[in-house]
């Protein structure tokens, strides 16, 4: 599996993607079954080519083929095998190839699992995915070829950025990219619907599983990236409102709105135009994030490419994909019929409010992210927008969003009355009130107190929904268990996902009460933090596979009882001339004891060491909540109704209208 084979497979995939983008569309327009039947075969062929290409790049990294420039720049002989593999996507060229491969897998999945789709709709969806894939594969070949050669080949490579040599970040990009790229499928369904001039309940049923799957991966990717920032960078935080962090949060917000609005299309055939626009917007934001990271516009610790030429290519691709889709939306959206009338007080009404608040938060984050680069571009002024702005603008929108989350699942469709809903939620409100009182006693500021009460409200109301559906405590337990077996899994999944939001917010509220100290101590010296005694007992040197390490031993005691022993470290990578910190964390799932080793001062005979000590209440709950949300989404996907999709439309052969 040599690099030439990988490059050839990439070029072949690009050619197949071009055919995939053109031939099925012509077939759908002419109602030619032979051309439409080519779509699945072309999608699977492109997928196999890109998997082959990516495998060749991994093989080059594993075998230390430093004649490949990408391998020489990002690997080394002494690098551990895991990071030789994961280093393939820890750089610009490899990450773009990974993006293209995941996109081809999405197209292959539609081809293999979308057999119940009408042939014209499937052909159009696969064609749209092929067009986007062709653009990225052309970008790979022309400006970011991962198989470019270097001669003479060096004996050893430069090695990977040491910050990326971590298991958490090693698997963060593939998961995050799967979330980003997964929204290409709802986008393709939206474009196909605009071409056909038809959106109905069946379309909503087909779109929702793909949107939920992408949302699950994006949720996991964001949570994993936040966790990496927390335990690798050594600053004790979890979210910096970094522009690239925001670039992943923005499509998550609109993707969450898309998942909810697709439910309205499926159940009530309402919000059709809005759902199509959300599908276009979510994938557009995913593409825009790619452009921002790789164009050099945004300064970020996450950005690993700064090449204006590449940025111009992606900008052109963005203009074609986003501009073309919005133009098509402007032309065809008025032809989509509206339906599903409902009262403001109803489940549909709350889902609309949910969408408004989510998209408002998205608009605020987008404004704060893009305002500095636009000010720099237009007026030459350098400004920064940080945590105070985002906290002041997003929290007032998040509070009502969480308050209304508790009511949504309990609301009837079409028209509802508030009193019956409030009567069923009384015990959830009581628990939230108890949490409010406890928070007032134990917390300092109003926002964490309010967040704690709302988080308990969301968790308790999610549980209330399940209790009501199972009629627990109102009939024998055996009857409730029988109802649980017949209840759709999507109901449990939705309740779990909502509860996950509450768990994450509890973690955020707890972290607002965190305490920390930066101290300079001798070996044997003890410092106090959060009622615990922290003692530096030893510092030793050690050698790793491709680094030298200085490792500290810190004993943490409470009332004389040993709680844990921490071993934070500093690693020096000679080939990159870079030093990194290795945080030591002990968790009991209620709080984290967190230690960081800083610089060494003084003489060898009487050295002192800088330590950063943290006590972080409820910190693990932030990422536990993200995991619970993703599990809830996965449970929804396991529902047979979601897996098999909608039945074929009646008279599917006559469903196509001229584009």
From TrEMBL:
Q: Which residues cross the membrane?
A: 6-26, 38-62, 96-113, 125-144, 175-195, 207-229, 249-266, 273-292, 312-331, 352-374, 394-413, 425-443, 449-467, 487-509, 618-638
Protein keywords: Cell inner membrane, Cell membrane, Cytochrome c-type biogenesis, Lyase, Membrane, Transmembrane, Transmembrane helix
Q: Which residues form the Cytochrome c assembly protein domain?
A: 89-295
Named from the GO MF annotations, one term is: heme transmembrane transporter activity
Which GO BP terms sit in this record?
A: cytochrome complex assembly
Chief location of this protein within or outside the cell:
membrane
Location of this chain's protein in the cell? Cell inner membrane
Q: How does it sit in the membrane?
A: Multi-pass membrane protein
Give the matching InterPro entries: CcmF_C, Cyt_c_assembly, Cyt_c_biogenesis, Cyt_c_biogenesis_CcmF
Assigned GO CC terms = plasma membrane
Task: Give start and end of each Cytochrome c-type biogenesis protein CcmF C-terminal domain.
Answer: 315-640
* Family statement drawn from the similarity comment of this UniProt entry: Belongs to the CcmF/CycK/Ccl1/NrfE/CcsA family.
NCBIfam families recorded: nrfE, PRK10369.1
Write out the function statement from the record: Required for the biogenesis of c-type cytochromes. Possible subunit of a heme lyase.
Show the PANTHER family listed in the entry: CYTOCHROME C ASSEMBLY PROTEIN-RELATED, CYTOCHROME C-TYPE BIOGENESIS PROTEIN CCMF
This one is known as Cytochrome c-type biogenesis protein CycK
**Species this protein is from:** Novacetimonas hansenii (Komagataeibacter hansenii)
Cite the source lineage. Answer: Bacteria, Pseudomonadati, Pseudomonadota, Alphaproteobacteria, Acetobacterales
Name of the gene this protein is made from: cycK
């Amino acid at each position: 599996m040599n690099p030439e084979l990988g490059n050839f497979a990439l070029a072949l995939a690009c050619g197949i993607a071009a055919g995939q983008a053109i031939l099925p569309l012509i077939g759908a327009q002419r109602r030619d079954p032979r051309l439409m039947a080519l779509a699945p075969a072309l999608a699977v062929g492109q997928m196999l080519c890109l998997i082959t290409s990516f495998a060749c790049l991994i093989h080059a990294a594993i075998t230390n083929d430093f004649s490949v420039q990408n391998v020489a720049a990002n690997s080394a002989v002494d690098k551990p095998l895991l990071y030789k593999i994961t280093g393939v996507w820890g750089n610009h060229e490899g990450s773009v190839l990974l993006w293209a491969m995941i996109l081809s897998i999405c197209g292959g999945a539609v081809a293999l699992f979308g057999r119940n789709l009408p042939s014209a709709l499937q052909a159009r969806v696969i064609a749209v995915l092929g067009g986007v894939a062709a653009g990225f594969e052309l970008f790979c070949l022309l400006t970011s070829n991962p198989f470019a050669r270097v001669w003479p080949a060096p004996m050893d490579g430069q090695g990977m950025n040491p910050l990326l040599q971590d298991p958490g970040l090693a698997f963060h990009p593939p998961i995050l990219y799967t979330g980003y790229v997964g929204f290409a499928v709802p986008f393709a369904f939206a474009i196909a619907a605009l071409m056909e001039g038809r959106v109905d309940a069946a379309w909503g049923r087909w779109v929702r599983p793909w949107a939920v799957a992408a949302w699950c991966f994006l949720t996991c990717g964001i949570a994993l990236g936040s966790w990496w920032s927390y335990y690798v960078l050594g600053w004790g935080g979890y979210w910096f409102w970094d522009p690239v962090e925001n670039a992943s949060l923005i499509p998550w917000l609109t993707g969450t709105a898309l998942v909810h609005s697709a439910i309205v299309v499926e159940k009530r055939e309402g919000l059709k135009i809005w759902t199509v626009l959300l599908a276009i917007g979510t994938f557009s934001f995913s593409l825009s994030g790619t452009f921002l990271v790789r164009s050099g516009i945004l300064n970020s610790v996450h950005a690993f490419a700064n090449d204006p030429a590449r940025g111009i290519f992606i900008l052109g691709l963005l203009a074609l994909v986003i501009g073309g889709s919005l133009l098509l939306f402007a032309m065809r959206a008025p032809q989509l019929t509206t339906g599903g009338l409902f009262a403001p007080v109803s489940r549909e009404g709350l889902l609309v409010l949910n969408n408004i608040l989510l998209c408002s938060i998205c608009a605020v984050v987008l404004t704060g992210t893009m305002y500095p680069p636009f000010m720099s571009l237009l007026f030459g002024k350098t400004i920064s927008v940080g945590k105070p702005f985002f906290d002041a603008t997003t929290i007032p929108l998040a509070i009502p969003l969480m308050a209304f989350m508790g009511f949504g699942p309990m609301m009837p469709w079409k028209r509802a009355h508030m009193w019956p809903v409030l009567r069923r939620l009384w015990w959830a409100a009581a628990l939230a009130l108890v949490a409010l009182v406890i928070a007032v006693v134990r917390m300092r500021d109003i926002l964490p107190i309010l967040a704690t009460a709302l988080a308990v409200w969301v968790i308790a109301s999610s549980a209330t929904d399940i209790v009501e559906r199972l009629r627990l405590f109102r009939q024998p337990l055996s009857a409730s268990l029988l109802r649980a077996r017949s209840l759709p899994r999507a109901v449990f999944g939705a309740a779990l996902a909502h509860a996950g939001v509450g768990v994450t917010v509890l973690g955020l509220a707890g972290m607002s009460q965190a305490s920390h100290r930066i101290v300079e101590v001798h070996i044997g010296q003890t410092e106090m933090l959060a009622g615990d005694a922290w003692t530096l007992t030893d510092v030793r040197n050690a050698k790793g596979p491709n680094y030298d390490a200085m490792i500290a031993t810190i004993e943490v005691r409470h009332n004389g009882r040993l709680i844990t022993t921490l071993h934070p470290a500093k690693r020096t990578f000679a080939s990159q001339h870079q030093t990194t910190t290795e945080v030591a964390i002990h968790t009991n799932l209620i709080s984290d004891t967190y230690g960081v080793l800083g610089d060494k001062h003084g003489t060898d005979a009487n050295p002192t060491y800088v330590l950063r000590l943290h006590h972080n209440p409820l910190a693990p709950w932030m990422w536990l909540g993200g995991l619970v949300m993703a599990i809830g989404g996965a449970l929804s996907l396991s529902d047979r109704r979601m897996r098999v999709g909608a039945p074929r439309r009646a008279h599917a052969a006559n469903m196509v209208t001229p584009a």
